[in-house]
Specification:
The protein is of the alpha/beta class. It has two domains: 124 residues, Rossmann fold (3-Layer(aba) Sandwich), CATH 3.40.50; 126 residues, Rossmann fold (3-Layer(aba) Sandwich). It has nine helices and ten strands. A ten-stranded mixed sheet has the order 3-2-1-4-5-10-9-6-7-8, with helices on both faces. Strand 9, helix 9 and strand 10 form a beta-alpha-beta unit. The protein is globular, with a radius of gyration of 18 Å.
Protein backbone atom coordinates (compact mmCIF):
# COMPACT_ATOMS: atom_id res chain seq x y z
CA UNK A 1 0.00 0.00 0.00
CA UNK A 2 3.00 2.35 0.43
CA UNK A 3 3.82 2.43 -3.28
CA UNK A 4 3.68 6.22 -3.82
CA UNK A 5 5.56 9.15 -2.37
CA UNK A 6 5.04 10.53 1.14
CA UNK A 7 3.37 13.88 1.72
CA UNK A 8 4.85 15.89 4.58
CA UNK A 9 3.06 19.11 5.52
CA UNK A 10 5.15 21.79 7.20
CA UNK A 11 4.32 25.03 9.00
CA UNK A 12 8.09 25.70 9.33
CA UNK A 13 8.16 25.12 13.11
CA UNK A 14 10.28 22.71 15.21
CA UNK A 15 7.37 20.25 15.29
CA UNK A 16 7.49 20.19 11.50
CA UNK A 17 11.27 19.59 11.69
CA UNK A 18 10.44 16.31 13.42
CA UNK A 19 7.83 15.50 10.80
CA UNK A 20 10.36 16.01 8.00
CA UNK A 21 12.86 13.72 9.70
CA UNK A 22 10.19 11.06 10.27
CA UNK A 23 9.07 11.33 6.64
CA UNK A 24 12.63 10.96 5.35
CA UNK A 25 13.33 7.95 7.57
CA UNK A 26 10.12 6.27 6.44
CA UNK A 27 10.85 7.06 2.80
CA UNK A 28 14.29 5.51 3.13
CA UNK A 29 12.78 2.28 4.50
CA UNK A 30 10.17 1.91 1.77
CA UNK A 31 12.22 3.33 -1.11
CA UNK A 32 10.04 6.39 -1.69
CA UNK A 33 10.35 10.13 -2.24
CA UNK A 34 8.87 12.92 -0.11
CA UNK A 35 6.78 15.89 -1.20
CA UNK A 36 7.25 18.68 1.32
CA UNK A 37 4.18 20.93 1.28
CA UNK A 38 3.72 24.37 2.78
CA UNK A 39 0.42 26.21 2.56
CA UNK A 40 1.25 29.88 2.20
CA UNK A 41 -0.24 32.33 4.66
CA UNK A 42 -1.35 35.71 3.34
CA UNK A 43 1.88 37.47 4.28
CA UNK A 44 3.94 34.82 2.48
CA UNK A 45 2.25 35.15 -0.90
CA UNK A 46 4.71 37.66 -2.34
CA UNK A 47 7.81 36.78 -4.37
CA UNK A 48 9.98 37.70 -1.39
CA UNK A 49 7.75 35.76 0.97
CA UNK A 50 7.87 32.64 -1.18
CA UNK A 51 11.67 32.84 -1.40
CA UNK A 52 11.87 33.05 2.39
CA UNK A 53 9.56 30.04 2.76
CA UNK A 54 11.57 27.96 0.29
CA UNK A 55 14.78 28.80 2.14
CA UNK A 56 13.18 27.63 5.38
CA UNK A 57 11.94 24.44 3.72
CA UNK A 58 15.41 23.69 2.34
CA UNK A 59 16.82 24.22 5.84
CA UNK A 60 14.29 21.73 7.21
CA UNK A 61 15.25 19.22 4.53
CA UNK A 62 18.93 19.62 5.45
CA UNK A 63 18.20 19.06 9.16
CA UNK A 64 16.14 16.03 8.22
CA UNK A 65 18.97 14.68 6.05
CA UNK A 66 16.61 14.32 3.14
CA UNK A 67 17.82 16.75 0.47
CA UNK A 68 18.04 14.03 -2.17
CA UNK A 69 14.55 12.66 -1.47
CA UNK A 70 12.51 15.84 -1.14
CA UNK A 71 10.63 17.93 -3.67
CA UNK A 72 8.99 21.19 -2.63
CA UNK A 73 5.43 22.37 -3.13
CA UNK A 74 3.82 25.72 -2.26
CA UNK A 75 0.05 26.14 -2.38
CA UNK A 76 -2.41 28.81 -1.32
CA UNK A 77 -5.74 28.57 0.48
CA UNK A 78 -7.19 27.29 3.72
CA UNK A 79 -4.49 25.02 5.11
CA UNK A 80 -6.89 22.27 6.25
CA UNK A 81 -8.68 22.08 2.92
CA UNK A 82 -5.48 22.36 0.87
CA UNK A 83 -3.67 19.57 2.73
CA UNK A 84 -6.72 17.31 2.67
CA UNK A 85 -7.14 17.87 -1.06
CA UNK A 86 -3.46 17.23 -1.75
CA UNK A 87 -3.73 13.81 -0.05
CA UNK A 88 -5.87 12.76 -3.04
CA UNK A 89 -3.01 13.24 -5.50
CA UNK A 90 -0.59 10.32 -5.78
CA UNK A 91 0.63 10.07 -2.18
CA UNK A 92 0.54 7.06 0.13
CA UNK A 93 1.16 8.50 3.62
CA UNK A 94 0.69 11.92 5.20
CA UNK A 95 3.29 12.94 7.82
CA UNK A 96 2.48 15.81 10.20
CA UNK A 97 3.95 17.51 13.23
CA UNK A 98 1.53 18.64 15.93
CA UNK A 99 2.19 21.21 18.63
CA UNK A 100 -0.27 19.68 21.04
CA UNK A 101 -3.30 21.36 22.62
CA UNK A 102 -1.18 24.08 24.29
CA UNK A 103 1.12 24.77 21.32
CA UNK A 104 1.85 28.33 20.26
CA UNK A 105 0.65 27.55 16.73
CA UNK A 106 -2.21 25.29 17.77
CA UNK A 107 -4.54 26.81 15.18
CA UNK A 108 -2.45 25.05 12.56
CA UNK A 109 -1.54 21.60 13.79
CA UNK A 110 -2.74 21.43 17.39
CA UNK A 111 -6.44 21.36 18.11
CA UNK A 112 -7.28 20.68 14.46
CA UNK A 113 -5.03 17.64 14.03
CA UNK A 114 -7.83 15.06 14.45
CA UNK A 115 -10.00 16.86 11.90
CA UNK A 116 -7.13 16.89 9.45
CA UNK A 117 -6.25 13.21 9.69
CA UNK A 118 -9.95 12.34 9.37
CA UNK A 119 -10.25 14.35 6.17
CA UNK A 120 -7.07 12.87 4.71
CA UNK A 121 -7.59 10.41 1.87
CA UNK A 122 -4.49 8.48 3.01
CA UNK A 123 -3.19 7.22 6.36
CA UNK A 124 -1.20 9.62 8.54
CA UNK A 125 1.81 9.55 10.85
CA UNK A 126 1.68 12.29 13.51
CA UNK A 127 4.75 13.33 15.50
CA UNK A 128 5.52 16.15 17.91
CA UNK A 129 8.38 18.49 18.65
CA UNK A 130 10.76 16.37 20.68
CA UNK A 131 9.50 13.04 19.36
CA UNK A 132 12.51 10.71 19.17
CA UNK A 133 13.11 9.51 15.62
CA UNK A 134 16.37 7.58 16.01
CA UNK A 135 14.45 4.32 16.39
CA UNK A 136 11.21 5.30 14.71
CA UNK A 137 8.54 2.56 14.71
CA UNK A 138 10.75 0.09 16.59
CA UNK A 139 7.63 -0.97 18.47
CA UNK A 140 4.03 -0.33 17.49
CA UNK A 141 1.26 -0.48 20.08
CA UNK A 142 -1.96 -1.59 18.38
CA UNK A 143 -4.93 -1.13 20.75
CA UNK A 144 -7.76 -3.59 20.22
CA UNK A 145 -10.78 -1.81 18.73
CA UNK A 146 -14.27 -2.86 17.68
CA UNK A 147 -14.02 -0.98 14.39
CA UNK A 148 -15.74 -2.29 11.27
CA UNK A 149 -12.92 -1.05 9.03
CA UNK A 150 -9.99 -2.33 11.08
CA UNK A 151 -8.42 -3.88 7.97
CA UNK A 152 -7.36 -0.38 6.86
CA UNK A 153 -5.28 0.00 9.98
CA UNK A 154 -3.91 -3.54 9.73
CA UNK A 155 -2.78 -2.89 6.15
CA UNK A 156 -0.83 0.15 7.32
CA UNK A 157 0.67 -1.50 10.40
CA UNK A 158 1.76 -4.59 8.50
CA UNK A 159 3.38 -2.57 5.69
CA UNK A 160 5.34 -0.35 8.07
CA UNK A 161 6.20 -3.14 10.52
CA UNK A 162 7.76 -5.16 7.70
CA UNK A 163 9.66 -2.13 6.42
CA UNK A 164 11.03 -1.24 9.87
CA UNK A 165 11.26 -4.72 11.38
CA UNK A 166 8.87 -3.54 14.09
CA UNK A 167 7.53 -5.52 17.01
CA UNK A 168 3.75 -5.02 17.28
CA UNK A 169 2.04 -5.15 20.66
CA UNK A 170 -1.66 -6.00 20.35
CA UNK A 171 -2.90 -4.14 23.41
CA UNK A 172 -6.17 -5.07 25.15
CA UNK A 173 -7.23 -3.04 28.16
CA UNK A 174 -9.31 -5.26 30.44
CA UNK A 175 -11.89 -3.20 32.31
CA UNK A 176 -13.20 -4.32 35.73
CA UNK A 177 -16.54 -6.13 35.55
CA UNK A 178 -16.86 -5.52 31.80
CA UNK A 179 -17.14 -8.29 29.25
CA UNK A 180 -15.58 -7.39 25.87
CA UNK A 181 -17.98 -7.50 22.94
CA UNK A 182 -17.90 -10.26 20.36
CA UNK A 183 -16.92 -7.70 17.73
CA UNK A 184 -13.95 -6.53 19.76
CA UNK A 185 -12.76 -10.07 20.43
CA UNK A 186 -13.16 -10.96 16.76
CA UNK A 187 -11.07 -7.94 15.76
CA UNK A 188 -8.43 -8.86 18.31
CA UNK A 189 -8.12 -12.34 16.81
CA UNK A 190 -8.07 -10.84 13.31
CA UNK A 191 -5.18 -8.59 14.36
CA UNK A 192 -3.15 -11.46 15.76
CA UNK A 193 -3.85 -13.76 12.81
CA UNK A 194 -3.03 -11.06 10.26
CA UNK A 195 0.25 -10.07 11.92
CA UNK A 196 1.41 -13.67 12.26
CA UNK A 197 0.34 -14.44 8.70
CA UNK A 198 2.40 -11.49 7.44
CA UNK A 199 5.45 -12.63 9.40
CA UNK A 200 5.36 -9.61 11.73
CA UNK A 201 6.68 -10.10 15.25
CA UNK A 202 3.79 -9.56 17.63
CA UNK A 203 3.00 -9.78 21.33
CA UNK A 204 -0.47 -10.14 22.82
CA UNK A 205 -0.87 -7.84 25.82
CA UNK A 206 -3.86 -8.16 28.17
CA UNK A 207 -3.55 -5.40 30.76
CA UNK A 208 -6.06 -5.10 33.62
CA UNK A 209 -7.29 -1.54 34.07
CA UNK A 210 -6.32 -0.02 37.39
CA UNK A 211 -9.30 2.38 37.39
CA UNK A 212 -12.99 2.37 36.51
CA UNK A 213 -12.55 5.07 33.87
CA UNK A 214 -14.04 4.34 30.44
CA UNK A 215 -11.25 6.28 28.70
CA UNK A 216 -8.65 4.32 26.76
CA UNK A 217 -6.08 6.97 25.81
CA UNK A 218 -4.23 7.36 29.11
CA UNK A 219 -3.50 3.66 29.80
CA UNK A 220 -2.50 3.12 26.17
CA UNK A 221 -0.09 6.08 26.26
CA UNK A 222 1.41 4.97 29.56
CA UNK A 223 1.92 1.41 28.25
CA UNK A 224 3.61 2.69 25.08
CA UNK A 225 5.81 4.93 27.23
CA UNK A 226 6.83 2.02 29.47
CA UNK A 227 8.01 -0.22 26.65
CA UNK A 228 10.05 2.59 25.07
CA UNK A 229 10.65 3.79 21.47
CA UNK A 230 7.03 3.14 20.61
CA UNK A 231 4.37 4.29 18.22
CA UNK A 232 0.60 3.97 18.73
CA UNK A 233 -1.65 2.91 15.83
CA UNK A 234 -5.31 3.93 15.88
CA UNK A 235 -8.33 4.41 13.65
CA UNK A 236 -8.98 8.12 13.19
CA UNK A 237 -12.74 7.61 13.17
CA UNK A 238 -14.72 6.20 16.07
CA UNK A 239 -16.11 2.72 16.49
CA UNK A 240 -19.75 2.36 17.48
CA UNK A 241 -18.88 1.07 20.96
CA UNK A 242 -17.21 4.23 22.29
CA UNK A 243 -18.36 6.89 19.82
CA UNK A 244 -19.53 9.21 22.61
CA UNK A 245 -16.03 9.60 24.08
CA UNK A 246 -13.88 8.77 21.08
CA UNK A 247 -13.10 12.27 19.80
CA UNK A 248 -11.68 13.52 23.09
CA UNK A 249 -9.72 10.31 23.60
CA UNK A 250 -8.25 10.36 20.09
CA UNK A 251 -7.26 14.03 20.41
CA UNK A 252 -5.57 13.14 23.68
CA UNK A 253 -3.73 10.32 21.96
CA UNK A 254 -2.52 12.50 19.07
CA UNK A 255 -1.23 15.24 21.38
CA UNK A 256 0.02 12.88 24.11
CA UNK A 257 2.38 14.27 26.74
CA UNK A 258 4.92 11.48 26.14
CA UNK A 259 5.40 12.72 22.53
CA UNK A 260 4.82 9.25 21.15
CA UNK A 261 4.18 9.18 17.38
CA UNK A 262 0.72 8.06 16.31
CA UNK A 263 -0.29 6.22 13.14
CA UNK A 264 -3.83 6.88 11.93
CA UNK A 265 -5.85 5.06 9.29
Amino acid sequence: MLDKDLLCATDLTPAADQAVRAAVLTAERIGAQVTLLHVLMKAERTAEGKDHVLDAMHAQAAKGKGNDRITYKLLEGDFMKVIAEETRHEHSLLVLGTHGPQGIRQKLFGADILKLVRHSAIPALVVQEGTPTDQLLERIVLPVAAHSQIDRLLDLVCALAKAFGSEVHVYHLLRPMEEPSEVLLANKQKMLDRLKGEGVRCIEVNEPSSTFSIGFAEPTIRYAERIGQSCIAIMSSASDEYRYIADAEKERMLANDARIPVLCA
